[in-house]
Amino acid sequence: MKKITDLQGTFELHNGVQMPYFGLGVYLSKDGNEVIHAVKEALDHGYRHIDTAAIYNNEEGVGTGIKEGSVDRKDVFLVSKVWNTDQGYDSTLRAFEASLERLGTDYLDLYLIHWPKGDLSKETWKAMERLYKEKRVRSIGVSNFLQHHLEDLLTSVEIVPMVNQMEFHPYLVQQKLLDFCNANHIQYEAWSPLMQGNIFDLDIMKDLAAKYNKTIAQIVLRWDLQKGVVTIPKSSKKERIIANADLFDFEISDEDVKLLDSLDRGKRFGPDPDNFNF
Ligand SMILES: NC(=O)C1=CN([C@@H]2O[C@H](COP(=O)(O)OP(=O)(O)OC[C@H]3O[C@@H](n4cnc5c(N)ncnc54)[C@H](OP(=O)(O)O)[C@@H]3O)[C@@H](O)[C@H]2O)C=CC1
Ligand SMILES: O=C1CO[C@H](CO)[C@@H](O)[C@@H]1O
């Protein structure tokens, strides 16, 4: 397993692209000042990876934050996603151009299919492959694809997705899916790593935080990285953005990694990919 060294550390995707294993999520960060400040604070404090999506309605602010921020565009790993209603070959190409326009950039580091949508996702994937081959995007992937969605997609792909971004936290580990992705060289990535704020109520997390003298957020985010999972906690508050990234001065023991794994109860805080259709 890769050593987790610093905030700018990376996992290597199967095409050789280095993906920073820690990033900022911006779902529910409002377009305008809120998201602009979050992105600028994150970049000022060592983050090099921002995760947005067309549906978050804040791509303009993300783009402004990067433009006004302290880091060159080429040193930021910028991710967006094609929304469900834009799936299909031509509509994906159009959605991609619209995202670039709003973000004020001429390429993405990673473009994801936001949710599986049956056979339509195969057409979407062909458009993603074209964007990749034309070097409009440095890597392509999926999100919310369970094993059966991946197996179905893999029957027709030319390029295997580089990433699968999934809900992932101690109450939803999906270890079999994680193993399947690892076996297929598909980098696993955690969304809602803080259980959308619910993790702070768990007594076991309070105990672990006390044991390591770290915050609950730092414990769970460090667990993600030690499990080889990219993580993108969201905050729009400066102090939390800074503290959430302070993960590189300690290590969770193998025993405590297993303890966190054992909390799994298949509980989702977001939609179920098998019952989500808008
Ligand atoms: N592909 C997909 O379908 C999905 C992708 N995502 C991506 O994953 C990212 C992260 O997931 P998200 O759902 O936002 O949830 P998270 O699990 O990251 O939790 C975010 C919540 O936790 C709060 N928070 C953050 N840090 C702290 C802290 N140190 N102490 C106390 N509270 C804290 C935030 O509030 P505050 O801002 O006030 O600090 C916010 O309410 C998203 O922003 C998005 O980029 C998310 C959902 C689905
Ligand atoms: O990224 C996302 C944020 O949350 C939305 C509402 O639950 C999801 O649809 C979406 O996947």
TrEMBL record:
Gene3D superfamilies: NADP-dependent oxidoreductase domain (3.20.20.100). PROSITE patterns: ALDOKETO_REDUCTASE_1 (PS00798), ALDOKETO_REDUCTASE_2 (PS00062), ALDOKETO_REDUCTASE_3 (PS00063). The record marks 81 as: Lowers pKa of active site Tyr. The keyword Transport does not apply. Keywords: NADP, Oxidoreductase. The keyword RNA-binding does not apply. Pfam families: Aldo_ket_red. Substrate binds at residue 114. The active site is at 56 (proton donor). SUPFAM superfamilies: NAD(P)-linked oxidoreductase (SSF51430). InterPro entries: AKR, AKR5G, Aldo/ket_reductase_CS, NAD(P)_OxRdtase_dom_sf, NADP_OxRdtase_dom. One of its GO terms (molecular function) is oxidoreductase activity, acting on the CH-OH group of donors, NAD or NADP as acceptor. Residues 30-264 form the NADP-dependent oxidoreductase domain. Belongs to the aldo/keto reductase family. This is Aldo/keto reductase. The lineage of its organism: Bacteria, Pseudomonadati, Bacteroidota, Flavobacteriia, Flavobacteriales.
